[in-house]
Structures are given as C-alpha cells and as structure tokens.
Specification:
By secondary structure, the chain is α/β, with parallel strands linked by helices. Helices cover 33% and strands 18% of the residues. The strands form 4 sheets. The chain has a 5-stranded mixed beta sheet, covered by helices on one side.
Amino acid sequence: MDLLANDLSIHEQFHDISSFRDALARLMSMRNTARTFGREVHCNRRFPTVNPIPNMSMQQAIGRLDLESRRATMSWMTHTGPFWDDLRQHGIDDWLECSGEVVTDTAVGEAAFRTLHGSECGLVSVTPSDWNCLPIDVIWRRKAEGLNDKTAALENWWDPAALQERLRSAAVPTRSWADLNEVATNRFPNLVLAQDCFEPLDGMPFVKSAAERFLILLGILDRLAHAFDADGVRTAEGHRIYQDYFTGGNALFSDSSNTEKRDFRNELTFPHPNELGRSLFCTWHGKVRHMTLRLHYWWSGRSGNPVFVIYAGPKITKR
C-alpha cells in the first residue's frame, strides 16, 4: 500500500505554533508507524511551501520548533522524502475532482489516480483539518475525452492508532526480489511475464526503491496496453501515457539505439515465453536509474496483443 501525505490537509487552520506543533507531531507519529511496518509516507516536494498558519509557510512554522523536531521534519520534507511527485502517475491535464474542488496536482489526485489504476494507495492527513473524513471520494472526469467518469473511494488516516491497525492487516510490503516477482505476477495478470524474468536480479542486494520503480513501470505498460477503444483505436489516455513516459530525453521508456541493436543483438534476443523455438528481439525497455537496472519487453503496439515482459535486471548494453 502506498501512503501519501495529504498536502490539502494543511490550509491555514492553525492560529498558533503550539497547536501546529501538536498536529505535526501526530503526522510524524504516523510516518514512524508506517516505517515500523516497512512502509513510507510519501510527501510532495512543495509541501514545505503550504501555509499551516495564516501568512506563515510550513518551513517558517517548522523553524519555530525545537531543534530535534525541526531537523526530523525538514529532513523528510526537503531531503529524504520519498517524494511521490518524482514518480507521479497522473498528468497536469487529468481532471480529478473532490467535493467540487479540482485536486489535480495534489496528493489526493495522485492517490485517486493510482487507486483507479490498480495500486493500493491511501492518504495520511493532518488533524484537525477539513480532510478528517472517510472515505474521500474523488472523481476522474473524462467526458472531454469521450470516456465515462470514474470514482475512487480513498482510505484516509489522521490518527496513528487507526493507521497502525490498518497496516496490521495490509499485505506485507515487498522485501525481496522474489516478493517483487510475486507481486508483479498477481498485480498485472494482463502482462505476460517470462518465468525467468526476474532471475537476473538474483544475488543483487535488494533495494526497495528499485522494486517500487519496477512496479510503476509494469503498471504503465499495463495501462498503455489497454488504452484502446472498442474499435482498437488508442484512447486519449493512451496518447497521454505515451507522451508522458515514452517521449523526451527523460522518458521512463525508450528504444535501444541502432548501435546497441547491432552490437548487442544476441544479448537483446530472448526465448519466446509461450512458443518453444521462437525468440523475441526486445530492444524497448523501461529504466530504473538507481543501480542502472532495465525492464525489457516486447509488444506489437496493437490493441489486444499481449505485452511480453522478458527481462528485469542490470543494463544489458553496458560498454
């Protein structure tokens, strides 16, 4: 389960440092609770700029706290994170709405988008605030694209004890490459994962952030492969996914260069997972920059055709 700090739950509702300090202590307690269960509360890089007190930013208010609280909070919000906007899944053009308010580009919108695309994701909110309610219903408006709206009912916690109780019953987080294989197989049944797909990771030290990036890459592939209408034409969402993740210099997915295709042809050719004697030339890949890992796959790009995920491991085309 992903946990996102609800930036909208800070809305100038505090009128003195004392009440803000107590609320921040509860938020940090929930973060510590999450970490006890092997999870993180992801924040937004803009979190320090919101105003908890009228005319006073988060960063300024935290500056009024004792040294230990100040260091722990600012380290989380400005340095260590993790930050959900580094791996955000919704775009600035996605219209996400809650109680008549547009929540695009917020943790509420991101949590809804992840939930609607198959990831378990909830919110951690400050209390007291206008967001101390359960569930939080978010509508993904898609009529402008000729598609039906979708609604997500988000879990939301503002009490450390309630969060602890929920995490006790939650699925165990990914703690090994074997766990990653199991989670990926169960979460993305519409992708065809080669039986030995994750074997190249065996013997490598497990890094949770890298495993999370692999799951995000697989989720993007799964969404793109099904972003077609009844006539087999790519939907507006499919075009946005392609633009966001497959184009530009910092794209998460790219094709190998012509030189790599020539020099590493054998290494980029894999046995077909379903057809004995056939092989697939898998030059398209997703990037996990930490540890320089890659996810190679093969897909025709056409509606209804399977996406074969063949390899997850160290970069193949290293010089």
